[in-house]
Each structure stands twice: as C-alpha cells, then as structure tokens.
Amino acid sequence: MPDAVLRLKKGTDRRLRGGHLWVYSNEVDTAATPLKGLEPGCSVVVEDARGKPLGAATVNPASLICARLYSRQATSELDTRLLIDRLQTALSLREQLYPEHCYRLAYGEADLLPGLIVDRYGDYLALQTTTAGMDCRMPMVLQALREVFKPKGIISKNNGAFRVAEHLPEEQSVRFGHVPEEIELVENGCRFVAPLVGGQKTGWFYDHRENRAFLQRFCAAKNVLDVFSYAGGWGVQAAAAGASSVVCVDSSTSALALVQHNALLNNVADRVDSLQGKAGEVMKALQKEQRRFDIIVLDPPAFIKRKKDQKQGEKAYHQINELALKLLAPGGLLVSASCSMHLPTESLQKIVRSAGGTRSRRLQILASLGQGPDHPVHPSIAETSYLKAIFARDLG
Predict the structure, then answer these.
(1) What is the largest CA-CA distance in the chain?
(2) For the chain, how many structural domains are there in total?
(3) Which of 69, 104, 146, 349 could form a cystine bridge with 55, CB 3.0-4.6 A?
(4) How many CB atoms lie within 10 A of CB 242?
C-alpha cells in the first residue's frame, strides 16, 4: 500500500473524478501534504480536500504533472503483479489486431501504464520510461516483460522531452539479452528493416500503419512523393500497392539507405528513388524542374512541441503544405500529417484549406484519420490523441 498521502485543494478533484489520471502541482494542498518531502517515483494515496481517497498514484515533486494515477484503488501498489496484469490486457488487444507481433505493445496512460511505452518487434522489445514513477521501477518492468513475452532482447531508449520534463537523465542501453542494430518487421504485408539501436525514438513509427494501408487503395499507376520519408514506410508501401514511381525525401542519408534496402526487400527497388536534403529545399528544387506528382505525403516531425511554439509551428505546417500543393498534379491526392499534440485536427484541416486557397486549388477531404488501435486513446486524456492524417483530393 502507498505509504504517503497527497491531498488536493478544494474543487480540483473534478478532473480526476471525470476519469483523468493527472494531478498538477498547483492542485496540491501543500500546506497539508508538502510535495517537497516526497521521493520522486514513490507511490501515494491521492485524496480530495475532505480526505476521501481518489486512487493511488506515483509522484514526482519536480514535475508540473506531479502525480499520475495508476489505480482507482487507494490500497493498490504499482508492483510486478500489477504490471503483468496490465501488460497481459494490452497484449490481448494487439494479438487480435496484428498476428505478425509487430506493434506498439504499451501506450502509457491509454493502457493504464502511465510513463511506459513499449514497441514489439517479434522477439525483441524497445521501451521508454517517461516518468520517475515508472523509471524507478525498471527492474519490475523488465521482470514483467520477460514473464509475459519471453523476449530475446530488450532495449531502453530513454530520451526526449518527456524525460526532460520529469528531470530524468537521457540514456540508451540493452537491458536484457541481445538486441540487433537493425530489426525486421512486417507492416501491411510489407517487410521492413528498422534501425532499432540508432534510429529515431523506438526505431519505427507504428502509429501511421492504418493510414498507410488506407493510402494503398489510391496508389495504382500513380507517381508518389514521400516527404520526411524516414525508412520508407509510406513510399515503399505505395510502390508495393502498384505506384509507377516513388520518390522518398529525407535529410538523413542513413534513413534513405534503409529506404533502398526496404524497397529491395519488397521487390520494388526499380520504382523507388530517393533525394537527400531538407524538405523545403528539395521541394523547391522539384518545383523548378516542373515536376508533378499524383500523390504527395507529408509526414513531418512535430513542429509544435510546446504551446509556445504554436504560432511558428502552424506557419511551418502551412509552408510545407503550400509547397506540396505546388507539386501536386491536377486531380492528385495530398496526405498531410501531424504528430503535434498541440495541433488539433480542425487546425490542420484549416491549414490545408488555407494552403489550397493560396494556390487557388479546390480541395475535398476524403478522410481525416488518426493513430492506429495499438495506440488507443484514453477518453478522458486528450493528450493521448495526437496523430492526424488529412487525405485531401484536388478537384482541379
């Protein structure tokens, strides 16, 4: 049972009662229950202003989000047994969806595992612990993962803004067994090699899997431009779906080397080319060459990482969408994506519409999609719904 108490100020318990899991530091009655004396990562009983228990949480006094509920039972402890139970529940969903055992296995709060991200590549697991509560329980996490999955190897890739916000050090290490530099996975019937050790985040971006599958129905005999391509998730699958030609654009030469390798794996290398450079510069060069594409995919990194980046980030999204529309052939399809949590779907649609208006293009939105079901959304935590993909067709 948690051995400390965190009491909230009057009226600040409404969000938790509505299903949310986060407690902010300014919601705590520090006169009754000081935050500073608590050990980062320890478990606490969260109480309302009257002393009624609301649940059990892990705490980090140094973070703006100072506590995260992991159970509505105040006596519950975040231990190996609970981790095993939650991981088994998460696994039961993924096994129904993806028999290839390639997916996001645990998605933090949405799987009632605050601070834990795990991606599965068959017999290998890549994890991130993004909170002090989960980070200090790494031995328990590893034990639970080994018991549930019997993996050959587990790597932790602990870096990024979430750990910075929690005042946790950034690190990467093999935690169990052996882990290959590159790992093979299967997505939508295509084979890919991903850079597990040296790649971005946990190595692959499973979140767009369903969106890439949706794009395939439009690809036959089309020429495709895949901007911010990384290892070719969009472009190679477009070629496998019958695209006559694909050009993948990325600033990383190592990523584009993987594009060509993945094209070979799927027997489409003769239809996949790559261009190395900054996206904007490459797109401007293509425009000067009067190139046109039937399908253009924009899948950039997050341009809005913090709320204060909103104005500049929206400007960046508008610029790349306007550049893309200059390269889009009449009747073509633009796929405009964003992984910025702070950019709502409606705002991305407005940006696409505005970019189209600037170019005097008439557009219709065929679909507005989000992350795949292995990235489930917690209904009370808007932040768990972050991915957008707008499919906009040019009407000429």
Answers:
(1) 70
(2) 3
(3) 69
(4) 14
With 0-12 / 13-18 / 19 or more C-beta atoms within 10 angstroms meaning exposed / middle / buried, residue 279 is buried
Count how many residues are written for the chain: 396
| CA nearest neighbour of 128 among 164, 75, 102 | 164
| 339 catalytic per annotation | yes
Domain end residue (candidates: 162, 177, 192):
177
Task: Look up residue 318 and give its DSSP letter.
Answer: H
**Phi, psi (deg, nearest 5) at residue 379:** -65, -20
3-state secondary structure string across 367-391? EEECCCCCCCCCCCCHHHCCCEEEE
Q: From the centroid of its chain, how far is CA 389?
A: 13
Q: Does one domain contain both 239 and 201?
A: yes
pTM of this prediction? 0.94
38: left (phi over 0), alpha (psi -120 to 50) or beta: beta
Domain containing residue 104:
80-177
Tens of pLDDT, residue by residue over 333-387, are 999 999 999 999 999 999 999 998 766 778 999 999 999 999 999 999 999 999 9
Which of the 8 DSSP states describes residue 234? H
Question: Is 196:126 a contact under the CB 8 Å cutoff?
Answer: yes
- CATH number of the domain within which 232 lies: 3.40.50.150
CATH code for the domain in which residue 29 is found: 2.30.130.10
Of 210, 221, 247, whose CA–CA distance to 372 is shortest?
A: 210
Give the single-character DSSP code of 197.
Answer: T
Q: pLDDT tens-digit profile of 241-274?
A: 999 999 999 999 999 999 999 999 999 999 999 9
The amino acid at 328: L
- Comparing CA positions, the residue from 228, 205, 211 lying closest to residue 324 is 228
> How far apart, in Å, do the first and last CA atoms of the chain sit?
64
Closest residue by Cα to residue 189 from 250, 118, 265: 265
DSSP 3-state of 171: strand
Residue 386: how many CB atoms within 10 A of its CB? Answer: 18
For residue 349 the two structure tokens come to 């649609």
In the set 102, 190, 248, 339, the catalytic residue is 339
Measured torsion, CA atoms of residues 133, 135, 139, 141, in degrees rounded to the nearest 10: 80
Tell me: do 212 and 311 sit in the same domain.
Answer: yes
